[in-house]
Amino acid sequence: MRITLDGRAMPHSFLIQSAGHASRRPLRSGIALCLACVLGSAPSLVPHQAQAQAQAQATTVQRIIAVVNSEIITEQELRARILLAIVISGLPDTTDTRQRIAPQVLRALIDERLEIQESKRLKLDADETDVDKAFDNIAQRNNMTRDQLTQFLGSRGVAAGLVRDQLRAQIDWIRVVQREVRPKVVVTEDQISLAMRAPNTANEEVRLSEILLPVYEPGQLKAVMEDARQLTQEVRNGANFNSVARQFSAAQSKDNGGDLGWVPVSSVLPDLQPIIGRLQPGQVSDPVETPVGIHIFYVSERRAAGAQAGQNDRNAVRQQLSQSQLERLAERYLRDLRRNAFIDIRASG
């Protein structure tokens, strides 16, 4: 059985303009020194203790994997989120899978920390009631009660708190985007008219979904591309694309399982039109480098362009342009948070 994490979704359209790579800045020396003290004060094992007790104590030592501003991500947190990703996405629970997805899971954890920190700064952070509602929605969509979902996750070694933390980050970020980004979205009548006059050479629309793996630094491109190839293969082997997108994608559409809705093939980047245009329902693309990272695309349906033609066409174009602009601005906002943050990623293993 696979659990579907729908949470609270906000629709988005395909990103059609470039966003630059985010940079990683070093920690302030004061924070680094503070963490050194924390690590140095970790409980040491008494030589005369029994071996079993020593091993039990050793498991409580929390090794720091990353620091995001003043907050830490521990090895235990990373391992727990890797397990959650495997359970939700349906990936095989093997050592190879865990090692392979660890970088993407860590990147997602870092982004979540930044999103939650920003929501707290703006006093927009979700309370327990908000998270309860989102958790209950997931249970209902999977025909379970809250207790049944908690028990199901527990039976697979996943604490319900992990899912709640992920939902909290999603709610927080949606609130930030709605307050700080959406008011900046402006779509003019001229833009709508121009879009409606654009020739639809493909004469088709596709129900498109995406997975975006970010490339924060140019040196990461090869490794991220290999991660994308592995995820693509897992989807082709039967993993649910939308579940994988929710766990690994960095695009704003991840909260909606990567779903971008109906997209005219002619509206995407010219280099991507042949790739997306030849995908048949149920097919997933090979990974492709785009201006914002590495993309994987999935087409669930196709239809002739204009199949929904009518008096609401102009409103539909307005909505598509608005969502596309919202996604670009939201990703730019998050990119700036990354650029201005103090992030220290430490070797694991």
From TrEMBL:
Domain PpiC: 203-301
Signal peptide limits: none
Gene3D superfamilies for the chain: 3.10.50.40, Porin chaperone SurA, peptide-binding domain
GO molecular function, one term: peptidyl-prolyl cis-trans isomerase activity
Name by which UniProt lists this protein: Parvulin-like PPIase
Origin superkingdom: Bacteria
InterPro entries according to UniProt: OMP_Chaperone_SurA, PPIase_dom_sf, PPIase_PpiC, SurA_N, Trigger_fact/SurA_dom_sf
A Pfam family this chain is assigned to: SurA_N
Keyword terms: Chaperone, Isomerase, Periplasm, Rotamase, Signal
